[in-house]
Amino acid sequence: MSASAGGPGSTGLAAARLRLRVVAVALAVAFTSMGVRLIDLGERASERDQPRPAATVDGEEQPARADIVDRRGRLLATDVTTYALAADPANVGDPALAAQALARVLGEVDAAELERRFLAGRRFAWVDRELSAEQLRGVMELGLKGLHFLPRRKRIWPQGELAGHVVGFTGVDQQGLSGIELALDRRLREDPEPLVLSLDLRVQQIVHEEVGEAVKRFRARAACGLVQDVESGELLALVSLPEFDPNRWQRTGPSERRNSCTGNIYELGSLFKVITAAMALDSGKVGLSDRFDATEPLRIGRHRIRDDHAKRRPLSVPEIIAYSSNIGTARMAFAAGGGEAEQAFLRKLGFDRPLAVELPDRTPPLLPSRWPEIVAATVSFGHGIAVSPLQFANATASLVGSGRLLRPTLLRLAGAPEPGPQLISQRTVTDLRWLLWLTVEKGTGTRARLSRYALGGKTGTADKPASQRRGYRSGEVVASFVGIFPIDQPRYLVLVSLDEPKGDASTYGFRYGGWTAAPVVARIVDRSGPLLGVPPTEGETLQALRERLLVSETPHALTGHPEERLAALDAGR
Amino acid sequence: MSLFSRSDRGVLSTWWWTLDRFLLAGFVGLAVFGFVLVLASSPPVARRLALPETQFVVKHGLFLLPALLLLLGTSLLAPRGVLRLATAMLGVFGALLVVTPLAGPEIKGATRWLPIGGVLVQPSEFVKPALAVVVGYMLARRPGLSGLPQALGLVAPVIGLLVIQPDLGMTFLVAAVLSTQLFVAGLPWLVLFAGGAIGVAGGWGAYHLFDHVRQRVDAFLDPDLTPYQVEAALRAIANGGLLGVGPGQGVVKYHLPEAHADFVFATMAEEFGILACLLVLLLFALLVLRGLSRLHASEDRFVLLAGTGLVAQFALQALVNMGVNLAVLPTKGMTLPFLSYGGSSLLALALGAGMLLALTRRGARLEMAT
């Protein structure tokens, strides 16, 4: 009653009650939304609820990184979970007993040191940063209290050194530090699907074995061996020696980590004559049957250019390539337009920029800064210009394959790649193939001859430039061989480069590419061809290649009666 | 039950039969559970600070008993007594609040505590409930909003002192409690919205004026900058899952600063599970709604307004603290009523709860001297 009598009236009270109800509703909504948030967090937590080790501290794992596999699904890199072991010394019971038990099981830690850590008065002490499976089981069987097993993601590379340079490695925080792991770091972090490489581990294994054996036999400093699909540009094998095992990358040096196929550049010497021949023939100014005088060394200013396998007579284009004549190649380059033509052609091949491939360790080509006559001459046979073996291989595969520029790749392609720009005419491509076949059949590359496949190829032996002064180091060479098979319808290119090989008795002390690298390529082709499903070369195909010897573009050395020429050819086998 | 006869007209008997026993049980239950939580969460914090492990447990225990006695004692008061108590508290602790910025030590960048007789006292904790009651009286004394000027005259200096400390969490709380009381007292909606706008502007000002406010807000808005404590709190909640890892088994408290105080909710989530958190949340909500419903039934404007202030303070403090723990609000140092460690906080909350219990007793009313 008193409420109605003046002062705070009952109407005021009624209004206040209404407002109070509004407050109640607002607070109820607020509490409800907190509840919803809690349930939401709980659901997220239960989604991740997996069985946990009984005493896990900070079970937060680094996010998984995608696996890397070869083109046939073989594992090259994957994540495993390992455990680090820590203890809560206040909970382990008798610290001395616990330390002794742990030291016994772990083997590699010192009981006294452990005990000291346990008595340091903290509630957390490291015991071992990484337990092996055996150690883990041992510790579990001890049944000690107060232990924390901390899961850690660890990257392992099951194939070890087999593809170490290609796959690369990651650091302690799972970040890519080299190879594919670095080049495709984001892809590997963001997409959990396995990353499929173009490598075929079977072929990689063959190349690794053969090149490894050659390195051992010729005591080479380093080597590169690779196999490229000349239609797609995919790399089926890429081997760099000395070998490198990503699983123990911390214990390796920069020279082992360096990828000698992409990170080293070499003056590849006579291998380069393939490129000069392609340029000359495609210029239209040089024909296959044109002859160039190689009787005397070529004088340019005060320089003299000599031949290693001097014939001291005019040579046709096939002879120049087959016998690897420096004089003939230089004259051929001049006939095709000299330095300017060379520069334009090298640009077309992409030698003016670093190679585009999925590896971080790439060294761009080193081209002459000036291009006087003498430089134009030496470049034609591969001196004064340095490129990585892979970049050279890719250019050769492009010229001898389809005549279009390939894009090399370490990833398996889903379909046919987009065709690159046309470099040379189809006719030049065919001529080039025949020249390379002839080099193996009859020239400097006969040690690469195979009965199963018609192989085309080119040898190269280049003096190594002196690192400090001008000129070349006497005695040290880079010996290489590039092979393409089957040469009538090329599918794969194989390149082997040996850095500073020493000749041995079997090569009569020769270190030439034709003696050291060519047989290695031959064995790689012979072993991997059947695996890759390449049918043996038909007799008819061989016959067609040989018959071409009998017609107009005949090498000088084989002049005479057609019957004699064939006989000479057979005798060479 | 047989302790008090219904026909007994004695103080205790009347108290027992008019008291809201649900509220009483809820508050006492919270305080006891809070002790268990401090037992579980504070030893690692103590160790980190190089104090004996039992430091916080003993101190909290020493505060718990007086707190419960205070709660019960206060609840015996009649509304007039509540008002007197509140006025006295406001006088004493208001004065201490003035002294604090001058004499208090600076702790973690703010001057909020005052050493009195060997313990650190946070005067603002006590000012808070007292202010709510006195403001309720000032508004109730006159019809409508005529009491507003006096109320503002009382609140403004308190807010000024809180800003000086600086203690923005408390400032926000005091302002929000006042707003709620004004709203219930009949503040026109228009003014309410205008006030909201001013609040937003004030927040904007605080963002640009105080570096630590700006950091916290920025950190809150940027998911990459989630502050360490909040991240650890979320990890604790995730680690605990539905049922928790068991009392004392949690590990996040080893890394979480303020695991026993501002982040006790996360510690609880880890050890007792999300279900327990939901139960605690439900208890808070029920206490708040029960309090409001009792006030709704009251015939007295003072009881209604003062009670609203006390309930609002309790509710908002709980909401803000849980919001921070659940990463829906920017970090703000605010205790979870009865569950967080903190002597001042506990005693002040006991006083506030006791006053609320007194005000929600059946038939409680303040005879206005008109």
SS content category of chain A: alpha+beta
Q: Biggest sheet of chain B: strands, sense, closure? A: 2 strands, antiparallel
The backbone outline of chain A, from C-alpha atoms, is elongated
At CATH level 3, the topology of the largest domain in chain A is Beta-lactamase
Keywords:
heterodimer; A: about 575 residues; alpha+beta; Penicillin-binding protein 2a (Domain 2); Beta-lactamase; 5-stranded mixed sheet; 5-stranded antiparallel sheet; 19 helices; 14 strands; elongated; disordered N terminus; disordered C terminus; B: about 375 residues; mainly alpha; two-stranded antiparallel sheet; 13 helices; 2 strands; about 70% helix
Outline:
With 573 residues, chain A is α+β, with helices and mostly antiparallel strands. Chain A is 38% helix and 16% strand.
How would you characterize this protein structure?
The complex is a heterodimer of chains A (573) and B (370). Chain A is α+β, with helices and mostly antiparallel strands. Chain A has two domains: 3-34 and 46-196, Alpha-Beta Complex (Penicillin-binding protein 2a (Domain 2)); 201-568, Beta-lactamase. Chain A has helices at residues 10-47, 95-106, 111-118, 133-142, 164-167, 179-183, 185-190, 201-218, 254-257, 273-283, 317-322, 326-335, 338-348, 373-380, 389-400, 426-442, 513-531, 539-547, 562-572; strands at 68-69, 75-87, 125-131, 147-156, 195-196, 222-229, 235-241, 291-293, 298-300, 303-305, 314-316, 456-465, 472-485, 492-499. In chain A, the strands form four sheets. In chain A, strands 1, 2, 3, 4 and 5 form a five-stranded mixed beta sheet that branches. A five-stranded antiparallel beta sheet of chain A has the order 7-6-14-13-12, with helices on both faces. A two-stranded antiparallel sheet of chain A has the order 8-11. Chain B has helices at residues 11-18, 21-48, 55-75, 79-103, 123-141, 148-164, 168-185, 189-209, 211-221, 228-240, 264-296, 301-325, 343-359; strands spanning 114-116, 119-121. In chain B, α3 runs parallel beside α13 (343-359), α5 (123-141) packs parallel to α7 (168-185) and α7 (168-185) packs antiparallel against α12 (301-325). Chain B has one domain (11-359). Chain A binds chain B through residues 3, 6-9, 12-13, 15-17, 19-24, 27-28, 30-32, 34-35, 37-39, 41-42, 44-46, 48-49, 57-60, 123-124, and chain B through 44, 47, 140, 143-144, 180, 183-186, 234-235, 237-242, 251, 254-255, 269, 274, 277-278, 281-282, 284-285, 288-289, 292-293, 295-296, 299, 301, 304-305, 308, 312, 315, 319, 322-323, 326, 328, 368, 370.
